[in-house]
Predict the 3D structure of the following.
Amino acid sequence: MPAFTATAPGKIILFGEHAVVYGEPAIAVPVSSIQTRASVKAVIDGISGEIQIDAPDISLSSSVSELDPDHPLRAAVMAVVGNKNPEEIPACKIQISSTIPTASGLGSGAAVSAALIRALSAFLGQRLIDEQVSDLTFEVEKIHHGTPSGIDNTVIAHQKPVYYVRGEPFEFLSIGEPFSILIAGSGIPGHTREAVQRVRKNWINDPDRYDSIFKSIGEISKTAKDLIDAGSPADLGPLMNENHILLQELGVSTPELDLLVETARQAGALGAKLSGGGLGGNIIALVDEETDQITEALTKSGAAYTLNSTIPSTKIPG
Ligand code: MEV
């Protein structure tokens, strides 16, 4: 029986995190220079129904049945095998490796689920389309994050930039001109679940104020979509800065993230904001060609890592 392998990219949210949970639009793009890889191969002479998982990056080597029922890896396996009879599942081993920093707002959890779900389904004889991978990943995301909007599983399963409104069919983003983003990790684990809960608590205490912040963020995402489509990426910088202020008002930034955002701007970035859930994790900065000076400044200000990502145009030239 052949081995089946699948990969899934990391992601960044360009605009609209948190507000997207409340029905406002958001924009996310895949980051394919960082990836999770899942490989499934048969265990000869193993007992049917026995699935082993090896994920050395998180020091995990276990039989799936020995993991906690709500462990995300077990949940991802269960999303695929469902109520299949163990006889229908050849004994197998799932190997997972990833270059996506964990707890960083880069979608590592969703990427692990998506790669595992895609590879295990193929191993069991059913190749899933992106939509199915996204839907199953969403089920696992609920365990990671409680009330996810669905944007992370969508961008990661489809591996393309998306404009996403919760509860509506998503759109692939039309990109007039390529642009470059510099990602910098604060080195402090991001806590998406806690961040989402904090925002919900704030919203419950003062719905009018928070609804108006969500609405302003939604307007930014709409404007950004048009600018990206029109090929005016340089104009996104001020929108990133405005989005960051609104995320500060939501209570999900930290002094470390604010310092990195400020450092990127001072060193020449066209705009910068935190990206993802916040309370740690990473920032993104819109940059033009020359990034060495910005990278150096970010490292001096405590960035644990930096990554360059170019978002290619979706328009065919000519
Ligand atoms: C996390 O990448 C983005 C959030 O908006 C949560 C979500 O959309 O599920 C913070």
